[in-house]
Design goal:
The complex is a heterodimer of chains A (485) and B (488). Chain A contains 15 helices and eleven strands. Chain A is an alpha/beta fold and 485 residues long. Chain A has a domain of 253 residues: Amidase signature (AS) enzymes, CATH 3.90.1300.10. In chain A, helix 8 links the parallel strand 7 and strand 8. Chain A is globular, with a radius of gyration of 21 Å. Chain B has three domains: 303 residues, no CATH class; 112 residues, no CATH class; 58 residues, Arc Repressor Mutant, subunit A, CATH 1.10.10.410. In chain B, strands 1, 2, 3, 7, 8, 11, 12, 13, 14 and 15 form a ten-stranded mixed sheet that branches. Chain B has a three-stranded antiparallel sheet with strand order 6-5-16, with no helix packed on it. A two-stranded antiparallel ribbon of chain B has the order 4-17. In chain B, helix 2 packs antiparallel against helix 3 and helix 7 packs across helix 8. The chains are: A alpha/beta (485), B alpha+beta (488).
Chain lengths: 485, 488
């Protein structure tokens, strides 16, 4: 038998249900590999001992009706986990231990999942390379000194390196899909309102959405099924019929109309990415799908719109980290001085940059020109998609304009860093679901992803299209375990 | 200051100034739980015992609207004869303070739940309508306590997140009396509706007061100053009087008024500048992305309308028409829902005229003397109506009734029992009265002589003597009748 950690999530579930493997064996296997992989710096907090205890308890009285029977899972450190430290990658929450559980992690626990640790991420999910984390860079298992993407960089790294059979991230402007693309894994951002935001450290409330990150589309379907539910604790949670995504999964895309937005053919995009896109188009055609040229005319405005809306909300969402109630506090002469010192020392540069941008765009005299204008443009971007979906069932684009870059390469050039999210950001602004699947490699051998964007609440269709693409692409990640010596 | 015809004017060097007042009343919504969380709103609990993770703004916590508070706001809007906005939006008002855990207050800025309405005041020189600009819902902040610990400020978050209705009047108020009447009327309406208990001691009703002055006859409004967070009618009046006079002084000295926020110092009885317009906070309002726009449909609003009880204005009208009360009496009886309830209970079982007189006379005097509310009245409505019936059916005289009332106030005793125990029943037996009268006539032959020779005034003397001899129990009507017969 192959290594336990080489197995995919659905395979592990199957083997545990068939009693070929115990939860304890599986849990220990992933923990052991995680222990040997400290060099990746994927974890911020480990919950190993407790997890093994939980696995043993599960094995004593296994419940095989659960969808994640005793399965170990590491999660992004943006999800509040009861009694497990939750930092959001920030010094300001360095020692914060929640007394409550986020809805999404609760759903995982309820299905028998075991949370083995909390994964590194950009500070408050603000970043595209995991370099803004207070807890240091994360290595991409693909190659040394390569970023794993961000903000769910610890998640993508841990998943690709097989430290966890599946993981969950959050995606505000591409934070699931871009790291998935950079590590040759699958990442899905559900429709806004599909997964509850309750208990997730907020970055930009109108854009944040939790989603699964997995090795393949099947695993992704299973995870989404578990994560997604209507939750009265989140006023933006939407009550809609959630599918049995895994059971309904099929690769038949005959007659499906897939849109190709011409505005996504950006100047200076590497040739490999164009070729990858062509490959995807060809597969869809070969499988009976119909390719339709579409236009999303306001695509160009998505990035500037995003960099007004997201920081505006963040500047307000992060006001609660003031040293008064919990988290880091610096001593001050008086209240204002304490605030200033706490927030100056507690937040990193990127977070401060965005708080300042957000404060600026909401200020009186600038509100109309920036925030209000951005909201209007956001509406136009959404209208573009609504228009397109009158003609097509889904949209196919590359996930990112480039493959993973070196650690440090873009750190001092925020705009170039922001450009990384050019294909993912419009989807968050429109609140739509989108999945990134690995589709090939560039000439350096780094993975590249394709993105399938769906109609609101039609996750099943994009899973099915991704499933068809996956079957025909037969992508293989070349990971050498270089970090284990 | 001069008051004539109810006008409130400030006179300096022959210039007459009119005072323009607008109020932003913060009324705590009567609700078991907070606006966006399930924590209790009970007053007076131990510090920080009614604080949920949402109230303390823990990471990842989200507000969920309390539907009851929405209903209360709509009800109040209907009571203010105001437009109910079917779509309203919750915004974040951003500022840092230790007792504001989120770093922003959730409020309604551009799209409040209730729009324009009006409140009718009964002033001595007639009715006056005060315009309502809007009513919106918002969260209360916590409480900073500076005087317990010498080094630190302590924070109590029990109040954090409690629902408030901010009711903004138009600048229609012109005098301290109108301010008094307006607050009382607003309070009455909300108490009738059960949307705010109006308890000013517990801070359920506070106001920011906007004051400006202008020369009488001017059309343009002067620059206003806002006096923050005044928590009693008396303090509002003191603050306005000080502030209006201060503004007039500034203008008379050739200066101009700066738009600013001021604080009222209740000890020194003066307002002080808190911050100028330039220093005003930039609250960076924007729609709260954690909450969807609030949409109400007609059916919902109609359902609430159906449940609106009779309000003071309608009740007053009914009392005047049905019970033939004077507007003055009716006003007194509808001024508070509990008073009107008490009156209706008493008058249901006894004479309305007597009930009105006894409640607005004896009972109000008693409540005033004891400084208590009618709900704490030592005399129940049931026993008061019994007392009134004893008067009405002639069992006791009005005078005896007053002494019975004196006994009742010390323990809500049944007046019938008191009358029996003390033998206070009116003597109405003509035989017995005749005996008493005969005795008085026999004992005062000189006065009888005098009366018969034309000293009519002496009649009262005989009545008094009879009453005295009967210990006040003789039925005065009958005594009069028999005496007249005997003496003439």
């Amino acid at each position: 038998m192959s290594n336990i950690t080489d197995l995919k999530l659905v395979e592990l579930v199957d083997k545990i249900k068939k009693k070929e493997l115990s939860s304890t064996e599986v849990t220990i296997a992933f923990i052991e590999r995680s222990k040997k992989s400290k060099k990746l710096n994927a974890y911020i907090s480990e919950n190993y001992e407790n997890s093994i205890k939980k696995a043993k308890i599960f094995d004593q009285k296994p419940d095989f009706k659960k969808k994640l029977p005793g399965i170990p899972i590491a999660v992004k450190d943006l999800f509040c986990t009861k009694n497990i430290r939750t930092t959001a990658g920030s010094k300001i929450l360095e020692n914060f231990v929640p007394t409550y559980e986020s809805t999404v992690t609760q759903n995982i626990l309820d299905e028998g999942g075991i949370i083995i640790g909390k994964l590194n991420c950009d500070e408050f999910a603000m970043g595209s390379s995991n370099e803004t984390s207070y807890f240091g860079n994360v290595q991409n298992p693909i190659s040394e000194n390569l970023v794993p993407g961000g903000s769910s960089g610890g998640s993508s790294s841990a998943l690709a390196a097989k430290l966890t059979p599946a993981t969950i991230g959050t995606d505000t402007g591409g934070s699931i899909r871009q790291p998935a693309s950079f590590t040759g894994t699958v990442g899905l951002k559900p429709t806004y309102g599909s997964c509850s935001r309750y208990g997730i450290v907020a970055f930009a409330s109108s854009l944040d959405q939790a989603g699964p990150m997995t090795h393949d589309v099947k695993d992704c379907s299973l995870m989404l099924e578990i994560m997604s539910n209507y939750d009265t604790k989140d006023s933006t949670s939407v009550e809609f019929k959630r599918e049995n995504y895994l059971n309904n999964l099929n690769e038949n895309i005959k007659g499906k109309k897939i849109g190709i937005p011409k505005e996504y053919r950006v100047d200076g995009m590497p040739k490999e990415i164009d070729e990858l896109w062509e490959k995807g188009i060809k597969i869809i055609k070969e499988n009976g799908g119909e390719i339709v040229e579409i236009s999303l005319p306001n695509t160009n405005y998505a990035l500037p719109t995003y960099y007004i809306v997201a920081p505006a909300e963040a500047s307000s969402n992060l006001a609660r980290y003031d040293g008064v109630k919990y988290g880091f506090r610096s001593k001050g002469e008086n209240l204002i001085d304490m605030y200033e010192k706490t927030r100056s020392e507690g937040f990193g540069d990127e977070v401060k940059r965005r708080i300042m941008i957000g404060t600026y765009v909401l200020s009186s005299g600038y509100y109309d020109a920036y925030y209000l204008k951005a909201q209007k443009v956001r509406r136009l971007i959404k209208n573009d998609f609504d228009e397109a979906y009158k003609k097509v069932d889904a949209i196919l684009t590359p996930s990112t304009p480039s493959s993973a870059f070196k650690i440090g390469e873009k750190l001092n050039d925020p705009v170039s860093m922001y450009l990384n999210d050019i294909f993912t950001v419009p989807i968050n602004l429109a609140g739509l679901p989108a999945i990134s699947i690995p589709a090939g490699h560039d000439k350096k051998g780094y993975p590249l992803g394709l993105q399938v964007i769906g109609k609101a609440f039609d996750e099943q269709s994009i899973l099915n299209i991704a499933f068809a693409l996956e079957k025909n692409i037969s992508f293989k990640n070349n990971i050498t375990d270089w970090w284990i010596k | 200051m001069s008051k004539n015809n109810g006008e409130y004017l400030i006179i300096r060097n022959d210039n007459k100034y009119e005072v323009i007042i607008g109020l932003e009343v913060h009324a705590q919504v009567l609700s078991e739980s907070k606006l966006f969380s399930t924590s209790s709103t009970k007053f007076g609990s131990e510090p920080n015992t009614q604080v949920s993770l949402v109230d303390a703004a823990f990471p990842g916590m989200l507000p969920v609207i309390n539907e009851h508070c929405i209903k209360q706001a709509v009800k109040t809007g209907i009571g203010l004869k105001a437009k109910i906005n079917k779509r309203s939006i919750f915004d974040r008002k951003n500022y840092f303070y230790a007792d504001l855990p989120q770093g922003y207050q959730i409020s309604q800025y551009k799209n409040p739940i209730v729009g324009e309405g009006s409140v009718t005041l009964d002033m001595p020189n007639g009715e006056k309508n005060i315009g309502i600009e809007r009513l919106h819902l918002e969260q209360d902040a916590g409480k900073s306590i500076h005087d317990i610990d010498p080094q630190n400020t302590l924070v109590d978050l029990n109040r954090s997140g409690v629902a408030l209705m901010e009711i903004v009047s138009k600048p229609d108020l012109r005098s301290l009396d109108e301010v008094n009447a307006y607050i009382k009327k607003l309070r009455a309406i909300m108490r009738y509706l059960g949307t705010c208990d109006g308890n000013m001691q517990e801070g359920s009703l506070r106001a920011d007061v906007n004051v400006s002055v202008r020369k009488k006859g001017d059309k343009k409004l002067g620059t206003r100053c806002e006096i923050k967070n005044v928590n009693s009618i008396k303090f509002m009046q003191m603050a306005i009087d000080f502030e209006a006079n201060r503004q007039v002084d500034v203008i008379e000295e050739g200066g101009s008024i700066d738009q600013e926020t001021r604080l009222f110092d209740t000890k020194k009885n003066e307002t002080r500048s808190m911050r100028s317009k330039e220093d005003a906070h930039d609250y960076r309002y924007f729609p709260d992305p954690d909450l969807l726009p609030l949409e109400l449909n007609d059916n919902y609003i109609d359902q609430i309308k159906k449940d609106i009880p009779e309000l003071p204005d309608e009740k007053k009208k009914r009392f005047i028409e049905k019970f033939k009360l004077s507007p003055y009496e009716a006003n007194k009886l509808v001024s508070d829902i509990e008073i009107s309830k008490y009156f209706e209970e008493v008058s249901k079982n006894s004479d309305v005229k007597l009930a009105t007189n006894w409640i607005t006379g004896e009972l109000f005097a008693l409540l005033n003397e004891k400084n208590i509310e009618i709900t704490e009245s030592p005399i129940s409505s049931k026993n008061l109506s019994k007392l009134i019936n004893l008067i009405k059916d002639g069992t006791i005289s009005g005078k005896i009734a007053k002494s019975v009332f004196e006994i009742m106030r010390d323990g809500d005793k049944d007046p019938i029992t008191i009358v029996e125990e003390k033998g206070l029943k009116q003597q109405s037996d003509p035989k017995e009265l005749e005996n008493l009268i005969n005795k008085v006539i026999a004992e005062n032959p000189k006065n009888v002589e005098a009366y018969k020779s034309g000293k009519d005034k002496l009649f009262g003397f005989f009545v008094g003597q009879v009453m005295k001899n009967s210990n006040g129990k003789a039925n005065p009507k009958l005594v009069n009748k028999i005496l007249k017969k005997k003496l003439n």
